[in-house]
Each structure stands twice: as structure tokens, then as C-alpha cells.
Design brief:
Helix content is 83%, strand content 0%. It is mainly α. It has a domain of 191 residues. The radius of gyration is 23 Å and the shape is globular. 47% of the residues are buried.
Amino acid sequence: MGSRKLKNSIILIAIVAVAGKLITYLVELLIAINFGASNTTDAFVMARALPLRIGNIVSWGLYAAFVPFYVRLLKEDKARAGVLSFYFSKNVFLYSLALSLLIAFGAEFIIRALAPGFNQETLGLAVNLLRIMSWSILLGNLAAIAQSVNSSRKHEFIASSSQPLNNMIILFSILVAMRFLGIYAVAVGFFLGALCKLLSQFLSFNPSKEFPSNLREKLPKGLMRKIWKSFFAIAGILLINECIMMAIRIFASHYEGAVSILNYGFVIAQAPLLIIETLIFYYFFPLFVEQSDMPDRIELRSNIQKFIRAILFVLIPLSLMMFLLSGLISRVLFLHGKFTWETVDKTAHAVALFSLSLIGLAIDALVFKVAIILGGIRKYSLIVILKLLLNLTLSVLFIKILDPIIALSLAYSLSSILTTCLLFRYLEQFLKFKFGVPFLKNIFKISGISLVSAGGVFIVRQIFVSNHLLAGFSSRLAALFIAVLVGSGLYLYLAYLMKLGELGLINKLKASEKGDK
């Protein structure tokens, strides 16, 4: 793949990810306007969390376990690759059907365990919502297999567009049916979105062509066992990561509205991360799989270092700006409908503190994929377990002395920051390279100009505050736009003056195909 085609693919996937995130914002905003931070919203967030998180664990686990084996087999024998996708899809269907049935029938027990602080009315609503949304697990997991095949066959746009389509269906359901069904309209949209997500993958994934007519073609010995072994290892780590957010929700369930506020704060703060994770997931993961088979893995090491530099170049200033503008962001997005000034301020605290975890989570997402490709899951899992223990310990300590929203979001971000250093050390040991002095100098330069640009953002914000120009929605939106424009413009100008080369790094990322040479 040539560098121009690589760049175009990256831009296209990023645009799709941004579109999907904007639709997600609209969904969250409509829920916030109609229900605020109430018991109804708490019930929905808790009910949605289980199918959403299980769906993510299973689909990401299936993708990460399936793609390395499928890509390699596809190069050797397309017929065998088709046999592999057929049998794997069949197994996924059966297991996912069983899981959806289990959650649907065990919904009450599950909600009681995950939300011990809910009253009876909130509990009943959460159970009903969970039963509707549980079927999205089956549909989402089948879509994940089709996405894996599409991504492996270089149909990245179709693979990455399924989530925006899913969010669009949810948004349509809210706009059309919320007047009649209330919060149940979102649950119905969640189910229909998963169905459309599956159907969209068949635009390029044709089962009649993908699955060979002769299904008796033998697979390499022990291949299916290796894939499932890899899946359970990956799913285990993803489950530990999800336990962190699960613990936060369990703590928050004892405080009315806290589950909703933390959810809104996390969704806003993690927006930039979705774009990076989408690029890693749909583009760089298959690319790194190919490069891992090359002698000495020199190109793989080089591309990982470049990608990390690009991540830091984007996220260091962005996290600082989000921290400073969290109040303004929350007022623009949520100061409508049933949201009060108090809940908006608490959401701002959550946005500010969750934004501190951006860099750590991005590095974590990259390191996780590298560990999958190169077989370093065991050591990586120790870091994830440490992160969970740190989060639990800090949550217990902070919740005694701080407001619950501040305590839980701060504990989450601190545990992420503290384990990031271990992730860098893990990469050095596993890939046998050193980031070195030039890398550290770049970080200091990026941090320095980020602080200067953050100062510009702070000054703009204070000008609006001191002149009492934040009274209406339009003035708040204008202030946010100008502050972001000043901060990003100043940052890019200083980066140009200091001759930082991070903006050109994407062009230097090379695929291991013949077109590159």
C-alpha cells in the first residue's frame, strides 16, 4: 500500500470515527435533556453498561484473536481462510445466543449485584431495559466477525462505519419514539442499531463467496484451539479493564444521579481516544500483524515509536485544554432541559478529571495490541491487574474525604497515570529498544508548548468570565470555539517554530506490502 493510500485510509477512518462520536454526543445530550441526572438515567446507564461492555469485550476479543491467524492464513490459502471464518462464525453464534439468553433471564440478579444502591423502582426499570438490550450482544458479536474479515481484506471503511450507523439508528429511535416510549425508546434503538450494524457488514462480506462450497477443507492442526485460547486470554484482560468502570458504577449507585454524571463526564472526556482506538483497531492492528512476521521487526519497532509520538503530540495539549474548559464544555452541552447548575458543575468536575487519563488510556490501547501480536499477554495482564487494584484502593480512600464524583473520577485517572510508566517500560523490554533522550526531549518540548497554549486558553476564558459574557448558550458556544481556536492555533504555531516533526509522522508510517518498497 502506498503512502498516499495509507494516509487517505487513515483520514477516512478518522472522519468516520468523528462522525460516530458526534452522533453519540447527540444521543447522550438528548437523554440528558429529557431525563437529567435522575434515577431513570441511572437505571438506563447501568442496564446499558452490561450488554455494551460485554459486547465490546467479546467483539474486541474475537477481532484481536481472530485477525492475526486469519490474515496469515489468507496469504497462504484463501479456501482455508474461508473455512476458518465459517466455523468460527458458527461457534460465535452459538455462544453469543447462550450468553444473550442467560442475561435476559438473569437480568434481575445481575442488576441487584451491580447496583446494590438502587431502590426498587429504579431496579425494576433497569431490569426491563437490560432484557431488551441483551439481544444486542448476539447481533454485535456476529457483526464483529464480519468486521474482522472486512478489515483483514482491506475494507477498513465498511468495517469502521458500522458503529456510526449503530449510533444513528439509536438517535433516530430517540427522535421518533421517545415521546411515546420514554427511556424504552433508547433501549429499542440499541437493539435495532446492533441489527443494522450486522447488516451493514454484508455490503462487502458475502457469506456465499467468503465461505467455500467445500467445507471439508482441513484447517491447520490445533488452529481453532489456538484462536480460542488467545480469545480467552484477551477477553480476560478486557474484563479486568471493565471491572474498573464496574467498580466505579457500584460505588456511584449509592448516590442518586452519580452514575449518570460519571457516565456523561467519561463520554465527553474520552472523545479523542475513540478516534485513536479506531485507527489502532481497524488499521494499525492488521498492519502491525503483517510487520511482526518480518525479520528483526525493525519496521514494527519504528512504526510503534512514531505512532506513540503522534499520540503524545495530539493528546498532551488536548487533555490540558479539556481540563481548563471542562466547565464551559459542560455548560454548552448539558445546561438544558432537566439538568441543573449543580449537576452541570459536577459533570464538569468529572470531565476535567477523566481528561487526565487520556494519554494513559491511548498508550494502554496500543500496548495491548502489541502484546496480542507478539504474545506478551501474561506480563501485560499483571499491569492491568495492578491498575485495577490501584483504582479500588484510591476509590475507597478518596470517597471518604471527597465528593463522590471527584473521588471516583480522580481515582480512575491517577491509576491510569501511574501505570503508564510501566507500559512504556514494558514496550522497551518486549520490543528490545530504548525510547532514548531524543524521545524525552520531544515530550518536554510538547509539554512546554502545551502549557503555553493552555495559558492562551485560560486568558480567553477569563476575558469572557470577567466581562460577564457567558450568560446565554450562543455566548458560551462562541467562547468555547474561540478558546479552542486560540489554543490549537498557538500550539501548532509553536510546534512549527520549534520544528517538531510529529505532524509528518503519519506519512512516514509504512505498510509491509510490495507497494511500499
